[in-house]
Amino acid sequence: MSIASFGRNTSKLKALFGIRARLVLLALILVVPLMLDRVRLLEDSRSRQMMQAANELSELAKHTADAQREIISTVQAVVKSSAYIYAAGSQQGRGCAVMRASLRVDLPWIRNLSIIGPEGKIDCSTTQSIVGFDLSDRDYVLKARELHDFVLSDFIPSRITSLPTMIAAYPVSAVDGRQESVVIAAIDLKWMSQLLVNRGGRSGVSVVLVDGAGTILASPPESMNLIGQKLKDTSLLEAVTLREINLDREYGSISFESADGEKKAVSFARVTGTKARMIVSVNQSLMLGDINRDIQTAYIELAIVVLATLLGAWFAGERLIIRPLRAMTDTANRFGRGEFSARASNASLPREFIPLARAFDTMASQLSEREREMAAANDRLTVIASLDLVSGLANRRGFQSRLEFEWMKALQSDTRLSLLMIDVDHFKLFNDTYGHPEGDACLSRVGEALSTIADAYAGFAARYGGEEFCLLLPNSSAARSLQVAEKVRTTIEELTIPHVTSDFKHVTVSVGIATVTPGSAQPQDDLIEAADAALYAAKRRGRNTVVEHGLILPADRPVSLAG
Hints:
Shape: flat
Largest sheet: 6 strands, antiparallel
Structural class: alpha+beta
Strand content: 15-25%
Distance between the termini: 99 Å
Low-confidence stretches: 550-563
């Protein structure tokens, strides 16, 4: 036989065993391995579902509890800041009006905010109709006065509205020891239930928030009627409490058998600072019922098919079909991980796979180029999104990112962090008098001055919004922050930008200062709120003034900027 004839016969043989012939062969001899693989996959799927369900339950409980903690933290910040504002306003006889005006309207989980006077009656409230109610016998009022700290009640029916609620309380004496009033906020449990929307979503999964007595505080919207009722199986709460004590932590998982004999996997997480727990449970028989039936069917089918198949089918299928597909899949997975330098055509593949491999390589090149273009575009957008074009400083988004960074840095190094809130005095009158172009020019000059001062004192300046600016000073004492604030005030005054409608006849600024040493449980908003309160006091003082935590620094007081 000649070499040419041998080559033609080899080509015919390859054509005979092309992809179509291999698929026919696979259909004939791979029945048994496919059935075995099906059973294996079903068993693995059941194991994965059980493991995944356990992990998801634990994460669901933690994440939902975290969401509830965020609400509690927000409520805590509101009542604390309201106590501070009420204490400061009471000195001027306007504590109630100032407190009512300070309540943010974008907090739907706070039903109302009230002040309980020394005699236990509501003296002031954002809901006028409840003024005068006597709450002197409520545990949360007594406990807040006793501890001089933030207190959160368990589930109670509201004496005022008859709605299920939780009450947050904070004594004004924690701010001003001379006052015996208590700030309380009624938390809307229906809003807390909204956080459980789309939590779970599996057959047999139950998600509820219960208080220390087992009363349901929140549940998904489809089971809102359970709110205010006790858990049906009281032994579940006892088992959760015992597990929590044994683990010595606020979250965990248990296997639980209910009174009717159903096996359940239960995960729980405590809402820090309260007796409330998020409990997520799943009925294992409901969750695994379908796959258990599939596994039983697969075993029956396997027993029938084993009698009529060849034991060598797996090896043939692996060599002819599975291995090339696995190589292509591996290449596709590498593309998905961003390894665009991988090439499918480098693998040893049957000739039917070569066009597909080349298409994969072309796709990898195109994806690599597009990724580079998107990265460059994202970098440009990030820079633009963090800058204020009028003042040339960082905008509020850029300031928030920098505050988070400096806060964590100060928390790790146990150093202080200062914030200056700066407001251009009578800026609306300036715009009305000179026009918006001149107003933008004024803000630009103020921004340049603040940028210079920030560079000189290793700070970070930003435009907070409108005519309000801020200056962040890492690792700065209160005294040094006061010096920098006075430098800001005098620098802007020395710009001598004309302002005929101002009492000073030129542009001036008011500055509020706050200095804290960050704590692990302290929200960053406390620093902003404190500085903003000081700025408010500076504007009340007559503007062109520096105020630190309510202590007014006269404009003519000499301040040394050395060191």
